[in-house]
Write a structure and sequence with these properties.
This protein has 228 residues and is mainly alpha-helical. 66% of the residues lie in helices and 2% in strands. The chain is built from nine helices and two strands. It has a two-stranded antiparallel sheet. Strand 1 (137-138) and strand 2 (144-145) form a beta hairpin. It is globular and about 55 Å long.
Amino acid sequence: MHLLFEMLAFALGYQLYAYQRKRSVDVISDEHRLWIFIGAAAGALLGSHLLGILERPEEWHQLSLIYWLSNKTVVGGFLGGLIGVETTKKLLGIHRSSGDLMTYPILLGLFIGRLGCHVSGLSDGTLGLPSALPWAVDFGDGIRRHPVNLYEMLFIAALALFLYFREQKIPFQDGQKFKVFLIAYLFWRFFVEWLKPAYYFPFGLSSIQLACLAGLFYYRKSILGIAR
């Protein structure tokens, strides 16, 4: 089920991207877009698996190709993809933002992907901590847990609506829409991680939370600008 929803997320996300690009003026050429996609994919692949492994330091003794491929995380994919895109653009001499057209497709893909995580249940490994709240879900092991994937779907939907209506009222500056999306998502993941079973270092943070802080530090100037 997870693989099915993951493929659906990529397919529908790309269709939305293609639809948006046809209806907008893209100052980046097709050839450069292709290289940016390659840079994003390479960075996301490396980043998602690397952070997925760093997320579980107690299992590092099992390091192998199979272990590497079976561990991945969205936060690592986003940050790795960001590094891949920025590196590619620097090599190509591109100074315009390339992320705005990808914002809604990424949100759509993430929403569908999280639905896949939820219906996959225990085997997905993205469950929340035990909870006595009325909306807690038993995924088959007799333990009611925070449905963190449903929480994220609600957050994604709210963020997409906010971006859409904000854009209708006051158009975003070049690159601002993607920055607002990623900053908001990193803040969300930093806090929601405390509702998940994870390895926390002695200072109280997990690897994903540290990665979120690193991403937010990278965008510190944009955050200060938004705050003003």
